[in-house]
Amino acid sequence: MFNVALLGAGRIGQIHAGNIAAHPDCRLVRVMDVYAPAAQALAAKYGAQVSTLDQVLNDDNVDIVAICSATDTHADLIEAAARAGKAIFCEKPVDLSLERVERCLATVREADVPLMIGFNRRFDPSMAGLQQSLVNGEIGNTELVTISSRDPAAPSADYVKTSGGLFRDMTIHDLDMARWLLQEEPVSVFASASSLVDPEIKAAGDVDTAVITLTCASGKIAVITNSRRASYGYDQRIEVHGSKGMLAVANHPESSLIKSVAEGVVAQKPMHFFLQRYGDAYRLELGGLIEHLKNGTAIHPSGEDGLQALLLADAALESLRTGKAVQPGNRV
Amino acid sequence: MFNVALLGAGRIGQIHAGNIAAHPDCRLVRVMDVYAPAAQALAAKYGAQVSTLDQVLNDDNVDIVAICSATDTHADLIEAAARAGKAIFCEKPVDLSLERVERCLATVREADVPLMIGFNRRFDPSMAGLQQSLVNGEIGNTELVTISSRDPAAPSADYVKTSGGLFRDMTIHDLDMARWLLQEEPVSVFASASSLVDPEIKAAGDVDTAVITLTCASGKIAVITNSRRASYGYDQRIEVHGSKGMLAVANHPESSLIKSVAEGVVAQKPMHFFLQRYGDAYRLELGGLIEHLKNGTAIHPSGEDGLQALLLADAALESLRTGKAVQPGNRV
Amino acid sequence: MFNVALLGAGRIGQIHAGNIAAHPDCRLVRVMDVYAPAAQALAAKYGAQVSTLDQVLNDDNVDIVAICSATDTHADLIEAAARAGKAIFCEKPVDLSLERVERCLATVREADVPLMIGFNRRFDPSMAGLQQSLVNGEIGNTELVTISSRDPAAPSADYVKTSGGLFRDMTIHDLDMARWLLQEEPVSVFASASSLVDPEIKAAGDVDTAVITLTCASGKIAVITNSRRASYGYDQRIEVHGSKGMLAVANHPESSLIKSVAEGVVAQKPMHFFLQRYGDAYRLELGGLIEHLKNGTAIHPSGEDGLQALLLADAALESLRTGKAVQPGNRV
Amino acid sequence: MFNVALLGAGRIGQIHAGNIAAHPDCRLVRVMDVYAPAAQALAAKYGAQVSTLDQVLNDDNVDIVAICSATDTHADLIEAAARAGKAIFCEKPVDLSLERVERCLATVREADVPLMIGFNRRFDPSMAGLQQSLVNGEIGNTELVTISSRDPAAPSADYVKTSGGLFRDMTIHDLDMARWLLQEEPVSVFASASSLVDPEIKAAGDVDTAVITLTCASGKIAVITNSRRASYGYDQRIEVHGSKGMLAVANHPESSLIKSVAEGVVAQKPMHFFLQRYGDAYRLELGGLIEHLKNGTAIHPSGEDGLQALLLADAALESLRTGKAVQPGNRV
Q: Subunits that touch chain A (at least 3 Cβ pairs < 8 angstroms)?
C-alpha cells in the first residue's frame, strides 16, 4: 500500500484524489492547497490530513507526491519532493522554460527518484491499445501518424497569455503522442498556423488553428492538426498508417443513442472535454507509477518525455516565425 | 448525507459499495455478509462497520438498506427493512414466486417506506436518454420496440436450475425495459424459444434462445430477442420506432480502436458483460432513490415494476407451454 | 448472347431494360406493353422492337421472357411463355392465389423451362455476402435470424386493396429471405400486427405494423419486423446469430457525408426506397438466370421459392386471425 | 440530344462509353483508338462508328469530343477538337508541362469552346454534397481542410517514371479538391515526403508517402496526406472544419456486411480503387458539360482548374527540394 500526498486540490487534483482513493494499492493521506477550504473538503471526503508542504516532505510515510498545483509551481515542487526522496507524479508541464526544465530534471536525476509526467493520453485504453498493436507489429512498419486534436471552445485570452501558447499548452500533448507512436525522434518540424477563432487570442500573440508536420530520419512522418474550437465537442482522433494497414482511435460519443428522423441519422457528439473523454486515462495513469514502485517497470512518460515534447513545441514556434522546417533544438 | 447499510458483500455488493462511497450525498456505514471475510474487507476499505442484520435494523442512523444478497433472501430482507422503516434498494428480483412478491410488496406498502428495484438499465445514460427522447415526443407516437439481449456465454446448468429460468432471470430485464418504453401494459405475450446453446440447459428444462412478442391494447408491439450466448460479447441493443422516426441504443465497444487491414476493418467487440457495460448504470441508479429522499420525486423502478415484469415472464412461460398468445395473469 | 423480350415497360420494366442492355451476355430485342408509348420509348432507347405477345412467343430468336407487367397478368404470361419454350424471369409474385400459383408452376414443370422469380434481395451484394458467409460456416450453426423491413411511407389504400395485404405484398420478401437464411422450412408461424400508420389501411382491412416469428423443427427461429412507414428512409437490415457470432447487413446511407455540429453528429439517411437501395440487386439478379442458361447452375429463387413464401404469408394471416402459432399449410 | 465522339477506348474510355450511352441526353456516335480492336468492340456494343480523328473532327454532327487517350496526347487532341469547334471533355491532366498547358488553354480560349477536365471527385455525391453544405454555410466559415488519399497499392516503377511523379499524378486530384473546398487560392505550399513503400519508386526519383500543407492569405489551411499503399483498400476521406462544425466524407465499404465474432467486429474494407469508388462520379461528371451546353451553367472543373492544380503540384515539388514553404509560381 502506497501513501500519497496531493499538492493542489483544484479541479484536476480532485480527479486524482478520487482515483487515488479507489486504487487498490494506494491511499490518500495528505492534501495541501494554498486555498485552505479546497484542501479541507478533499481531505474530509477521503479521510486524509490537510498539510503544509513541509509536513508532506518530512513525513516518511508519504511514498508518492502528486503535483496538481499551478503550472509555475511544478518545477519547484518537483525539486523539493525529489530532494525529500519521494516518488513524484506531476501534471504537465514541468515548466514552460527549457532551461528551467533542464535544471529540474538534473535535480531529479541527482536525487534518483521516480518522476512521471501526466501526459494522460498514453493511458487512455483506446490509445494505449493502439500503441500496443503498433508495438505488436499488427500493421507492419509505421509510415505516417495523423493526430487530430480540437478543444470544444477557446480558453480566455487571459489563460492563453500565461499558458505558453497553443504549441506549449495544447499541442504538447499531441507532440508527446507523436513521439510515442513514431518510436523515433523527429528531426524536422514545420508549422502552419492561423488566428481564426478568437481575435483576442490573436491580440495576445497566439494562434488557434494549426498544422504541424514532423519528419523522422527514417522517413516516417507525423502530422498534427489543432484547433481551439470544435462546436461538436472535444475532437481527439489518431491514425497510424503502416506497411500492412491502419490503426485508428475514434472519438467517444456522449452516449450510444442514435436518432433516425427525416433530417438524418443523428448520433451523439463526442464527449465534451478532457475530464469526460480521458476519465479512464486519469484513473489508469497513476497505475504506471505504482507498477514501477512495485515491480520496477520503466516509468513513462518520464521527465525526459516532458522535455522532448517541449523541444518540439519550441521548434514549431520557430518554424512558424521563419516559414521553414526547423530541426528540434539541442538542449540548453 | 444519507447513511447506507449494505446487505451482501459479494461481486455486486462490492460494486454498490464503491458507488455509495463515491456518491456526494451518501456514505457506507454498515456491511453485513454471511461470509465474514467479505464483509470485513469491504468495511475496511470504506471505513464502515461489519454488522449483523439486527445492528443494521436497530441503528437509527441508517437511512438506506441496500440488499445485494442471494435472491432467496431478498423478500425476507425487504420485509425486515421495511418494518424497521428504512428506505430500501434491492437487486432484482424480489422473488421468483408471484405470491411471495405480492406479500412482500404488501408489507412494504403497509410500512410506507420507499422501495427501489435494481433494474439497472433504466439508469444507463444511453437507455435513459432514449426514454427521455421518447417522452419528449422526438419520434412521435411509439409503434414498435425491439430489444436485443444476449449474454456472452451460458451460465452453468446449476445456476440455471435456481435462477428461475431464462425468462425470470434474464428476460425480466428486457420485460421491464419494454414496459418502460411502451408506457403501456402489454395485454398479450407470445414466446418462441429453443435450447440450442447448451444441452445441459435443455436437460435442466430451460431454453437459451428466445423471441418474445408483447402486444398492447393500443396496437403498440414490443419484441425481445434473447440468447445465452454471443461470442462477440454482451449484446445489448434497443430500437424504438415511432410515427416520426427511430431511437436506438447501440452496443458499447471495449475501446474505440479500429484496425483496417487486408482482412477488413476490425472494430472492438462490445464490452464483455454487465459489470462493464452497465458500470455507469450501477453508479447512477442509487441516485434515483437519493433523489426521492431529498426531493420527493417518484421512485422507479418500484416494487410494482418488479411485480409486473414477473407477470410478463410468467405469461411468456405459459405461452411457450401452450403455443398461444397469453394474457398476462392477474395478480394472485 | 441471349435475346430478351420484355413484357411490361413501366417503372420496374425500365430498370430491367437498362440492366439487360448493359449485361455483356444479353440484349433487349422486343418490348411489349399495353400502353404503346411506354413500349415505344423503351424500344427506341435500346434498339428493340415494339411487339405483341404473339410476336414475342413466336420469335425463335427470343431466349428469355422478362415479365414486369401488372401482378394479375403474371401467371397467365408465365404459362404462355412456358408453353412457347422460353426461359422466364418474372417479378414477384406469381399470383396472390395459392391455387393459381400451383397450377402455373405445374405448367412450367410440364414445359420444362427455367423460371426465376424476382426476389431481388438475394442478389444484393451485402445480403448475398451474408448468405455466403453463413454457408461458409463463418458463424457456426444458425440460431436466430432477425429481419427489419420498413417502407419509407405507406402506399395508397387503393394499392393496399389489390396488393394482397402487408404479408403477401411486402413481408413476402422477408419471408423469402428468412427461408434462404434459415436453410430450413419453418414449421410454425406466429404474427402480431396492428394498424397504426394509416386509418385508410385499417379501413381496407389491412395491417401496417407487424412482427412475425417463424420457428423451425431444429429450433432455429426467425423474427421479421415490418412497418409501412419509416420517416428516415427505407429500413432494410438483417442479422443472423450463430453459435460462433453474428452476421449483419446494415442500411446503406444516401451518401457518406457526415456533419458534426452542436446538435450532434448527423449522417445521411438510408437510401430512399427499393429502386435506390436495390439498384445493384436489380442489375445482378438476371445474372442468375444467365448463369443457368450458360452453365446449368441451379436457378434461385425458383417458382417453388415463390410458392413457399406465399404459404408462409398465408400462415401469418391465419395466425393473426386466430392468435395462435400456425403450421404453414400443405399445398392445395 | 448530344452526339459524343470518344477518343481512346481503353479502360477509362470504356467507363465513359457506358455512361454516355446510358445518359438520357447524349449518345455515343464515334469511337477512335490507335488499337483498332478496342475501338471496334466498343463501337459494336453501343452502335457507334469506328472513326479516325479527321472523321471525328469533320463530322458536324459530333457535338462533344471525350478525350480518354494517353496523357501525352491530351494537349494535342484538345487543341484539334477546339479548332474544330467541339465541346471538349478531357481526362486529367491536360499535360505535365506548365508551358504546354498554358499554350493549350490559350488555343481553347481562342476557339471559344467549352472544356471540362476530368477531376471526377467533384461529382462524387458525397463530396459534392459536402461542398454544397459548405457553400450553404452549414458549418460557418471554413478554417481547415484535411484530405486523406491513399491508393491500395503502388503502381509499377515504369508508370511512375512517365506519370509526372506523386504530386502531379496522384496529389493533383487532392490539390483540386483542396482549391474547390477552400474557395480561395493557397499562397503557400509546404511538402514533406518519403520513399517508404517501394525502393523502385525511390530509385525512379519519386516519393510515395507525403504530407502537403497549403495556406491561404485569409488563414485557412489545408493538409493533404498521401500514400501509394493502403492494404485495406482505397482510402479517400475529406474533413472540412468550420467555425460552426465539421463536414466529413467517409470511405465507402465494399458492402454493408458486418461480422461480429470473438476476434472483433469486422466490417468490409473500402472499395478497392477509383473505378469502384468513383463509379457514380464517372457517371455524373459528363452531366456538368451537358448542363453547360443545355443551360449555359458554368463549366467546372475547367482548364484553368487543371492549370491551378498543376501549379500547386509544382510548388509542392519545389518545397520538397528546398525544405521551405513555397509560393505557387506565377504562370509561365
A: B, C, D
Which residues in chain B have Cβ-Cβ distances shorter than 8 Å to D269? Answer: 260, 262, 264-265
Contacts of D264 in chain B (CB under 8 A): 232, 259, 266-269
Tell me how far apart the terminal alpha carbons of chain A are, to the nearest angstrom. Answer: 39
What backbone torsions phi and psi does residue C227 show, to the nearest 5 degrees? Answer: -145, 150
Determine phi and psi for C167, rounding to 5 degrees.
-70, -40
- Per residue in C155-180, pLDDT (tens digit) is 998 888 888 999 999 999 999 999 99
Amino acid C332: pLDDT: 38
The vertex-A119 CA angle with A113 and A123, nearest 5°, equals 100
Question: Which parts of chain B sit beneath pLDDT 50?
Answer: 331-332
Which range is most confident: A16-30, A309-323, B154-168?
A309-323
Q: Complex ipTM, two decimals?
A: 0.94
List the single residue in B232, B261, B265 with the smallest CB-CB distance to D260: B232
Task: Report the candidate in C332, C305, C311 with the shortest Cα–Cα distance to residue C188.
Answer: C311
Sequence-ordered list of residues with C-beta below 8 angstroms from that of A192, at least 6 positions apart, any chain: A210, A211, A212, A320, D188, D190, D213, D215, D221, D325
Residues C111, C109: Cα–Cα separation, whole Å = 5
Longest distance between any two alpha carbons in chain A, whole Å: 66
Domains of chain A: 2-113 (3.40.50.720), 121-272+298-322 (3.30.360.10)
Q: What is the DSSP letter of C67?
A: E
Provide the β-strand partners of residue C213. C190, C223
| Closest Cα in chain B to D267 | B265
Q: How far is D268 from chain B (nearest CA, A)?
A: 5
Q: Which pLDDT tens digit goes with each residue over A137-171?
A: 999 999 999 999 999 999 998 888 888 999 999 99
What DSSP letter does each residue of C180-206 carry, written as one string?
A: HHHTS-EEEEEEEEE--S-HHHHHTT-
**Positions of E strands within A221-274:** 221-227, 235-242, 245-249, 257-261, 264-267
Size of interface C-D (CB pairs under 8 A): 83
A1 touches chain C (CB under 8 A): no
Q: Which is more confidently placed, D210 or C21?
A: D210
CB-CB contact of D90 with D74 (8 Å): yes
The burial of A136, by beta-carbon neighbours within 10 Å (0-12 exposed, 13-18 middle, 19 or more buried), is given as exposed
pLDDT per residue over A85-99, tens digit each?
A: 999 999 999 999 999
Grid-cell match 477538337, residue found:
D81
Of B188, B227, B244, the CB nearest to C144: B227
Q: Is D331's pLDDT higher than 50? A: no
